[in-house]
Amino acid sequence: MASAQEIIDTIQLINSENIGPITFFKLLEMFKTPTEALRYLQTAKKPSVCPRNKAELEYQRAQKQKISIILYNDDTYPPNLKHLEDRPPVLYAKGNLSCLLNPLSLSIVGARNATINGRKTASKIAYDLTNNNVMVISGMARGIDAAAHKGALYATNQKGTTIAVLGTGVDMVYPKENTLLYNQIVEQGLILSEFPLGTGPQSSNFPRRNRIVASLSLGTLVVEANTNSGSLITARLALEYGKDIFAIPGSPDESRSAGPNKLIKEGAFLCENAEDILSVLCANNSRQIHRQIEFNLQPNEQISFTEITPPPQNNGKIIDYLNYDGVYVDEIIRTSGLDASTVAMELLELELEGRIIRQVGNKVALIK
After folding, report:
1. What is the 3-state secondary structure (H, E, C) of 85-145?
2. In percent, how much of the chain has pLDDT > 70?
Protein backbone atom coordinates (compact mmCIF):
# COMPACT_ATOMS: atom_id res chain seq x y z
CA MET A 1 0.00 0.00 0.00
CA ALA A 2 1.48 3.33 -1.06
CA SER A 3 1.93 6.09 1.49
CA ALA A 4 0.09 9.41 1.25
CA GLN A 5 3.30 11.12 0.13
CA GLU A 6 3.88 8.59 -2.66
CA ILE A 7 0.32 9.05 -3.89
CA ILE A 8 0.53 12.84 -3.81
CA ASP A 9 3.95 12.81 -5.54
CA THR A 10 2.56 10.60 -8.30
CA ILE A 11 -0.54 12.75 -8.76
CA GLN A 12 1.62 15.87 -8.89
CA LEU A 13 3.99 14.40 -11.48
CA ILE A 14 1.39 12.95 -13.88
CA ASN A 15 -0.58 16.22 -13.80
CA SER A 16 2.41 18.41 -14.62
CA GLU A 17 2.66 20.15 -17.99
CA ASN A 18 3.69 17.90 -20.92
CA ILE A 19 3.82 14.80 -18.69
CA GLY A 20 1.79 11.92 -20.09
CA PRO A 21 2.00 8.22 -19.12
CA ILE A 22 4.92 7.45 -21.44
CA THR A 23 6.94 10.46 -20.25
CA PHE A 24 6.05 9.61 -16.65
CA PHE A 25 7.67 6.18 -16.92
CA LYS A 26 10.65 7.56 -18.84
CA LEU A 27 11.23 9.88 -15.90
CA LEU A 28 11.02 6.93 -13.50
CA GLU A 29 13.64 5.08 -15.54
CA MET A 30 15.98 8.00 -14.99
CA PHE A 31 15.12 9.15 -11.49
CA LYS A 32 13.65 5.99 -9.91
CA THR A 33 10.88 7.71 -7.94
CA PRO A 34 8.28 10.44 -8.58
CA THR A 35 9.86 12.43 -5.74
CA GLU A 36 13.25 12.59 -7.47
CA ALA A 37 11.63 13.29 -10.86
CA LEU A 38 9.73 16.21 -9.36
CA ARG A 39 12.91 17.54 -7.78
CA TYR A 40 14.60 17.48 -11.19
CA LEU A 41 11.69 19.21 -12.93
CA GLN A 42 11.49 21.91 -10.29
CA THR A 43 15.26 22.50 -10.57
CA ALA A 44 15.25 22.51 -14.38
CA LYS A 45 12.28 24.91 -14.42
CA LYS A 46 11.31 23.64 -17.87
CA PRO A 47 7.67 22.56 -17.56
CA SER A 48 5.02 23.93 -15.29
CA VAL A 49 4.92 21.51 -12.38
CA CYS A 50 1.48 20.78 -10.95
CA PRO A 51 1.10 22.77 -7.70
CA ARG A 52 1.64 20.65 -4.60
CA ASN A 53 -1.52 21.91 -2.92
CA LYS A 54 -3.58 20.85 -5.95
CA ALA A 55 -2.26 17.28 -5.67
CA GLU A 56 -2.87 17.28 -1.92
CA LEU A 57 -6.44 18.48 -2.44
CA GLU A 58 -7.01 15.69 -4.96
CA TYR A 59 -5.84 13.13 -2.41
CA GLN A 60 -8.05 14.63 0.30
CA ARG A 61 -11.11 14.64 -1.98
CA ALA A 62 -10.57 10.98 -2.77
CA GLN A 63 -10.26 10.12 0.92
CA LYS A 64 -13.42 12.03 1.73
CA GLN A 65 -15.42 10.31 -1.03
CA LYS A 66 -13.98 6.86 -0.20
CA ILE A 67 -12.36 6.61 -3.61
CA SER A 68 -9.31 4.34 -3.80
CA ILE A 69 -6.19 5.61 -5.58
CA ILE A 70 -4.21 2.76 -7.12
CA LEU A 71 -0.64 3.47 -8.19
CA TYR A 72 1.30 1.76 -10.99
CA ASN A 73 3.38 -0.22 -8.44
CA ASP A 74 0.57 -1.26 -6.08
CA ASP A 75 -0.30 -4.93 -5.62
CA THR A 76 -3.89 -4.12 -6.57
CA TYR A 77 -2.88 -2.56 -9.91
CA PRO A 78 -4.45 -4.73 -12.66
CA PRO A 79 -1.83 -7.15 -14.07
CA ASN A 80 -3.31 -6.87 -17.56
CA LEU A 81 -2.44 -3.17 -17.68
CA LYS A 82 1.18 -3.56 -16.67
CA HIS A 83 2.36 -4.47 -20.17
CA LEU A 84 1.05 -1.22 -21.70
CA GLU A 85 3.74 1.29 -22.58
CA ASP A 86 1.24 4.05 -21.86
CA ARG A 87 -0.37 2.43 -18.81
CA PRO A 88 -2.01 4.87 -16.39
CA PRO A 89 0.33 5.76 -13.50
CA VAL A 90 -2.75 6.42 -11.36
CA LEU A 91 -6.14 4.70 -11.31
CA TYR A 92 -9.12 5.97 -9.34
CA ALA A 93 -11.51 3.25 -8.19
CA LYS A 94 -14.91 3.45 -6.55
CA GLY A 95 -16.65 0.30 -5.38
CA ASN A 96 -15.47 -3.26 -4.90
CA LEU A 97 -11.71 -3.57 -5.57
CA SER A 98 -11.92 -7.38 -5.55
CA CYS A 99 -13.43 -7.11 -9.04
CA LEU A 100 -9.90 -6.50 -10.31
CA LEU A 101 -8.79 -9.92 -9.05
CA ASN A 102 -10.97 -11.97 -11.41
CA PRO A 103 -8.62 -13.54 -14.00
CA LEU A 104 -11.54 -14.22 -16.38
CA SER A 105 -13.01 -11.13 -18.01
CA LEU A 106 -14.53 -9.93 -21.26
CA SER A 107 -15.22 -6.41 -22.51
CA ILE A 108 -18.50 -5.79 -24.32
CA VAL A 109 -18.75 -2.68 -26.49
CA GLY A 110 -21.01 -1.36 -29.22
CA ALA A 111 -23.18 1.40 -30.58
CA ARG A 112 -24.68 4.11 -28.40
CA ASN A 113 -27.75 4.30 -30.65
CA ALA A 114 -28.18 0.53 -30.44
CA THR A 115 -31.26 -1.36 -31.58
CA ILE A 116 -33.55 -3.05 -29.10
CA ASN A 117 -32.34 -6.45 -30.29
CA GLY A 118 -28.72 -5.34 -29.93
CA ARG A 119 -29.26 -4.21 -26.35
CA LYS A 120 -31.10 -7.45 -25.51
CA THR A 121 -28.29 -9.53 -27.00
CA ALA A 122 -25.59 -7.64 -25.07
CA SER A 123 -27.56 -7.92 -21.84
CA LYS A 124 -28.25 -11.65 -22.25
CA ILE A 125 -24.62 -12.48 -23.06
CA ALA A 126 -23.38 -10.39 -20.11
CA TYR A 127 -25.89 -12.14 -17.84
CA ASP A 128 -24.75 -15.60 -18.94
CA LEU A 129 -21.05 -14.73 -18.74
CA THR A 130 -21.42 -13.35 -15.22
CA ASN A 131 -23.23 -16.50 -14.12
CA ASN A 132 -20.18 -18.38 -15.40
CA ASN A 133 -17.77 -16.27 -13.32
CA VAL A 134 -16.59 -14.10 -16.22
CA MET A 135 -16.23 -10.41 -15.31
CA VAL A 136 -17.96 -8.10 -17.80
CA ILE A 137 -16.15 -4.82 -18.53
CA SER A 138 -17.52 -1.87 -20.49
CA GLY A 139 -17.55 1.93 -20.62
CA MET A 140 -20.98 2.81 -19.17
CA ALA A 141 -22.00 4.67 -22.34
CA ARG A 142 -25.64 4.58 -23.40
CA GLY A 143 -26.71 1.73 -25.64
CA ILE A 144 -24.69 -1.50 -25.72
CA ASP A 145 -22.39 -0.55 -22.82
CA ALA A 146 -25.27 0.16 -20.46
CA ALA A 147 -27.12 -2.99 -21.53
CA ALA A 148 -24.04 -5.14 -20.84
CA HIS A 149 -23.59 -3.67 -17.36
CA LYS A 150 -27.27 -4.19 -16.55
CA GLY A 151 -27.19 -7.82 -17.66
CA ALA A 152 -24.15 -8.48 -15.48
CA LEU A 153 -25.68 -6.78 -12.44
CA TYR A 154 -28.87 -8.80 -12.81
CA ALA A 155 -26.95 -12.13 -12.86
CA THR A 156 -26.18 -14.36 -9.87
CA ASN A 157 -29.50 -13.55 -8.24
CA GLN A 158 -29.27 -9.80 -8.98
CA LYS A 159 -25.94 -9.49 -7.15
CA GLY A 160 -23.64 -9.70 -10.16
CA THR A 161 -20.48 -7.65 -10.54
CA THR A 162 -19.16 -5.59 -13.43
CA ILE A 163 -16.43 -3.01 -14.10
CA ALA A 164 -17.18 0.33 -15.76
CA VAL A 165 -14.18 2.23 -17.14
CA LEU A 166 -15.06 5.89 -17.50
CA GLY A 167 -13.83 8.65 -19.78
CA THR A 168 -14.53 11.07 -16.93
CA GLY A 169 -13.53 11.19 -13.28
CA VAL A 170 -14.98 8.35 -11.19
CA ASP A 171 -17.06 10.92 -9.33
CA MET A 172 -18.81 12.10 -12.52
CA VAL A 173 -21.87 10.38 -14.01
CA TYR A 174 -21.99 10.52 -17.81
CA PRO A 175 -24.44 10.36 -19.41
CA LYS A 176 -26.77 11.59 -16.65
CA GLU A 177 -29.41 9.06 -17.69
CA ASN A 178 -27.09 6.37 -16.29
CA THR A 179 -27.16 7.74 -12.73
CA LEU A 180 -29.09 4.75 -11.38
CA LEU A 181 -26.80 2.36 -13.24
CA TYR A 182 -23.74 4.18 -11.87
CA ASN A 183 -25.02 3.79 -8.30
CA GLN A 184 -25.73 0.09 -8.84
CA ILE A 185 -22.24 -0.51 -10.18
CA VAL A 186 -20.69 1.30 -7.20
CA GLU A 187 -22.71 -0.91 -4.86
CA GLN A 188 -22.08 -4.25 -6.60
CA GLY A 189 -19.11 -3.73 -8.93
CA LEU A 190 -16.38 -1.18 -9.62
CA ILE A 191 -16.06 2.21 -11.31
CA LEU A 192 -12.55 2.83 -12.70
CA SER A 193 -10.84 5.82 -14.34
CA GLU A 194 -7.39 7.30 -14.90
CA PHE A 195 -8.72 10.86 -14.99
CA PRO A 196 -8.58 13.25 -12.01
CA LEU A 197 -11.67 13.75 -9.90
CA GLY A 198 -14.10 16.24 -11.36
CA THR A 199 -13.00 15.61 -14.96
CA GLY A 200 -16.05 16.05 -17.17
CA PRO A 201 -16.74 14.46 -20.55
CA GLN A 202 -14.17 15.46 -23.17
CA SER A 203 -14.04 13.88 -26.62
CA SER A 204 -10.28 13.27 -26.42
CA ASN A 205 -10.61 11.23 -23.22
CA PHE A 206 -12.81 8.45 -24.55
CA PRO A 207 -10.26 6.98 -26.99
CA ARG A 208 -7.77 6.95 -24.09
CA ARG A 209 -10.37 5.13 -21.99
CA ASN A 210 -10.75 2.50 -24.73
CA ARG A 211 -7.19 1.21 -24.31
CA ILE A 212 -7.94 0.37 -20.67
CA VAL A 213 -11.17 -1.42 -21.59
CA ALA A 214 -9.31 -3.43 -24.24
CA SER A 215 -6.34 -4.26 -22.05
CA LEU A 216 -8.18 -5.20 -18.84
CA SER A 217 -10.04 -8.12 -20.40
CA LEU A 218 -9.09 -11.40 -22.07
CA GLY A 219 -11.19 -10.53 -25.09
CA THR A 220 -13.59 -8.01 -26.59
CA LEU A 221 -17.10 -8.55 -27.95
CA VAL A 222 -18.52 -6.03 -30.43
CA VAL A 223 -22.31 -6.22 -30.63
CA GLU A 224 -23.29 -3.34 -32.93
CA ALA A 225 -21.05 -0.67 -34.45
CA ASN A 226 -20.55 1.19 -37.70
CA THR A 227 -17.17 1.08 -39.40
CA ASN A 228 -15.88 4.32 -37.84
CA SER A 229 -17.13 3.56 -34.34
CA GLY A 230 -15.02 3.90 -31.22
CA SER A 231 -16.00 0.29 -30.48
CA LEU A 232 -13.91 -0.84 -33.44
CA ILE A 233 -11.00 1.18 -32.04
CA THR A 234 -11.36 -0.82 -28.82
CA ALA A 235 -11.41 -4.06 -30.83
CA ARG A 236 -8.31 -3.05 -32.81
CA LEU A 237 -6.47 -2.22 -29.60
CA ALA A 238 -7.51 -5.54 -28.08
CA LEU A 239 -6.17 -7.33 -31.16
CA GLU A 240 -2.85 -5.47 -30.83
CA TYR A 241 -2.67 -6.61 -27.20
CA GLY A 242 -3.14 -10.24 -28.25
CA LYS A 243 -6.74 -10.56 -27.04
CA ASP A 244 -9.54 -12.61 -28.58
CA ILE A 245 -12.06 -10.64 -30.67
CA PHE A 246 -15.73 -11.66 -30.93
CA ALA A 247 -18.46 -10.08 -33.02
CA ILE A 248 -22.22 -10.52 -33.40
CA PRO A 249 -23.09 -10.82 -37.12
CA GLY A 250 -25.94 -8.77 -38.57
CA SER A 251 -27.80 -7.87 -41.71
CA PRO A 252 -25.65 -6.26 -44.43
CA ASP A 253 -28.43 -3.68 -44.87
CA GLU A 254 -28.00 -2.41 -41.29
CA SER A 255 -25.20 0.16 -40.81
CA ARG A 256 -24.74 -0.91 -37.18
CA SER A 257 -23.86 -4.40 -38.41
CA ALA A 258 -21.10 -3.15 -40.71
CA GLY A 259 -18.48 -3.04 -37.95
CA PRO A 260 -19.02 -6.54 -36.53
CA ASN A 261 -19.38 -8.04 -40.02
CA LYS A 262 -16.07 -6.45 -41.03
CA LEU A 263 -14.35 -7.84 -37.94
CA ILE A 264 -15.65 -11.34 -38.72
CA LYS A 265 -14.31 -11.08 -42.26
CA GLU A 266 -10.94 -10.14 -40.79
CA GLY A 267 -10.86 -13.17 -38.49
CA ALA A 268 -12.88 -12.31 -35.38
CA PHE A 269 -14.84 -15.14 -33.77
CA LEU A 270 -18.45 -15.18 -34.97
CA CYS A 271 -20.52 -15.09 -31.80
CA GLU A 272 -24.20 -15.74 -31.26
CA ASN A 273 -24.33 -16.43 -27.53
CA ALA A 274 -22.24 -16.71 -24.37
CA GLU A 275 -21.42 -20.34 -25.08
CA ASP A 276 -19.45 -19.30 -28.17
CA ILE A 277 -17.33 -17.01 -25.99
CA LEU A 278 -16.90 -19.45 -23.11
CA SER A 279 -15.62 -22.17 -25.41
CA VAL A 280 -12.82 -19.91 -26.64
CA LEU A 281 -11.98 -18.52 -23.20
CA CYS A 282 -11.82 -22.01 -21.73
CA ALA A 283 -9.45 -23.12 -24.50
CA ASN A 284 -7.16 -20.12 -23.92
CA ASN A 285 -7.67 -19.59 -20.19
CA SER A 286 -4.57 -21.30 -18.80
CA ARG A 287 -2.35 -19.54 -21.32
CA GLN A 288 -3.88 -16.14 -20.56
CA ILE A 289 -3.68 -16.52 -16.79
CA HIS A 290 -0.05 -17.58 -17.05
CA ARG A 291 0.62 -14.49 -19.13
CA GLN A 292 -1.07 -12.30 -16.51
CA ILE A 293 1.15 -13.74 -13.80
CA GLU A 294 4.22 -13.02 -15.91
CA PHE A 295 3.14 -9.42 -16.35
CA ASN A 296 2.59 -9.12 -12.61
CA LEU A 297 5.96 -10.53 -11.57
CA GLN A 298 8.24 -9.26 -14.31
CA PRO A 299 10.14 -6.19 -13.08
CA ASN A 300 9.98 -3.10 -15.24
CA GLU A 301 13.10 -2.70 -17.35
CA GLN A 302 15.00 0.36 -16.19
CA ILE A 303 17.94 2.25 -17.56
CA SER A 304 20.64 2.31 -14.92
CA PHE A 305 22.27 5.68 -14.30
CA THR A 306 25.16 5.84 -11.84
CA GLU A 307 25.08 9.62 -12.04
CA ILE A 308 22.59 12.12 -13.42
CA THR A 309 24.43 14.76 -15.42
CA PRO A 310 22.95 18.11 -16.42
CA PRO A 311 21.29 18.02 -19.86
CA PRO A 312 23.22 19.56 -22.74
CA GLN A 313 22.45 23.20 -23.43
CA ASN A 314 22.17 22.75 -27.22
CA ASN A 315 19.33 20.49 -28.39
CA GLY A 316 19.81 21.21 -32.08
CA LYS A 317 21.80 18.08 -32.82
CA ILE A 318 19.00 15.77 -31.72
CA ILE A 319 16.34 17.83 -33.51
CA ASP A 320 18.18 17.22 -36.79
CA TYR A 321 17.26 13.54 -36.53
CA LEU A 322 13.54 14.10 -35.84
CA ASN A 323 10.53 14.56 -38.11
CA TYR A 324 6.76 14.97 -37.80
CA ASP A 325 5.98 11.31 -38.58
CA GLY A 326 8.03 9.79 -35.78
CA VAL A 327 11.49 8.27 -35.40
CA TYR A 328 12.55 5.32 -33.25
CA VAL A 329 14.77 6.33 -30.34
CA ASP A 330 17.12 3.44 -31.12
CA GLU A 331 17.56 4.87 -34.63
CA ILE A 332 18.45 8.29 -33.18
CA ILE A 333 21.07 6.68 -30.95
CA ARG A 334 22.51 4.70 -33.86
CA THR A 335 22.68 7.53 -36.40
CA SER A 336 23.73 10.29 -33.99
CA GLY A 337 26.52 8.30 -32.38
CA LEU A 338 25.46 9.60 -28.96
CA ASP A 339 25.09 7.31 -25.97
CA ALA A 340 21.61 6.28 -24.82
CA SER A 341 21.66 8.37 -21.64
CA THR A 342 22.54 11.58 -23.51
CA VAL A 343 19.81 11.00 -26.10
CA ALA A 344 17.29 10.21 -23.38
CA MET A 345 18.06 13.39 -21.46
CA GLU A 346 17.97 15.60 -24.57
CA LEU A 347 14.68 14.10 -25.69
CA LEU A 348 13.28 14.65 -22.22
CA GLU A 349 14.28 18.31 -22.40
CA LEU A 350 12.59 18.72 -25.78
CA GLU A 351 9.47 16.98 -24.53
CA LEU A 352 9.23 19.14 -21.43
CA GLU A 353 9.57 22.21 -23.65
CA GLY A 354 6.56 20.98 -25.63
CA ARG A 355 8.54 20.52 -28.87
CA ILE A 356 8.19 16.75 -29.30
CA ILE A 357 5.67 14.06 -28.43
CA ARG A 358 6.18 10.45 -27.40
CA GLN A 359 4.58 7.78 -29.56
CA VAL A 360 3.83 4.13 -28.88
CA GLY A 361 6.71 1.80 -29.77
CA ASN A 362 9.52 3.97 -28.32
CA LYS A 363 9.18 6.60 -31.04
CA VAL A 364 9.27 10.40 -30.84
CA ALA A 365 7.98 13.03 -33.26
CA LEU A 366 8.14 16.78 -33.69
CA ILE A 367 5.00 18.71 -32.78
CA LYS A 368 3.67 20.68 -35.73
Report:
1. CCCCCEEEEEECHHHHHCCCEEEEECCCCCCHHHHHHHHHHHHHHHHCCCEEEECCCCCHH
2. 90
